[in-house]
Amino acid sequence: MTIRAYLFGMTLCTLICLAAWSLVLVYIEPGVFGVLSFALFYLTLFFGLVGIFTIIGFTARALRMHEDNRLFPLVSRSFRQGVLFSLIFLLSLGLQSMRMLNIINILVIVIVISFIEVYFLHRYERRF
C-alpha cells in the first residue's frame, strides 16, 4: 500500500465516522435510547478523532522529513498517538459529562497515557 492510498483511505474513513457522529448528534435522543445512544456517540467520536489526529500527526511528521523512503515507520507511530490522544480527549469528555473532571484526573490520564507511549517508544527502539 502506498502512502497516498493510506492517506486517502484514512481520510475517507474519518469522514464517514464524522458523518456518523453528526447523525448520532442529530437523530438519536439520549433519553429514548439510553446507553446505546451514549455508546454510539462516544464510539463514532473516538474513531473520527483517531482519524483526525492520525492524519494531522502523519502530515506534520512527513513535512519535517525530507526522505520519502522513511515515511512508512511514521504511519504506525502516528496511528498509535492518534489513538492515545483520542483516549485522552474522550476520557476527559466522559469525566466532564459525569461532573468528575478536575486537574488531578487530567494529570493522571496524561501521565498514564505518557507511560504507555514511553513503553511503545522503548519497545520500538529495542527492536531496531
What report would you give on this structure?
It contains five helices and no strands. It is mainly α and 128 residues long. It has one domain. The radius of gyration is 17 Å and the shape is flat.
Search tags:
0% strand, mainly alpha, single chain
Task: Give the topology.
Layout: H1 3-27, H2 30-33, H3 35-64, H4 72-97, H5 103-127
Which stretches are low in confidence, meaning pLDDT under 50 for 5 or more residues running?
Answer: none
Number of helices: 5
Work out the radius of gyration.
Answer: 17 Å
Structural class: mainly alpha
Order of helices and strands: HHHHH
Strand content: under 5%
State the shape: flat
Number of domains: 1
Gist of the model:
This protein is 86% helix and 0% strand. It has one domain (3-127).
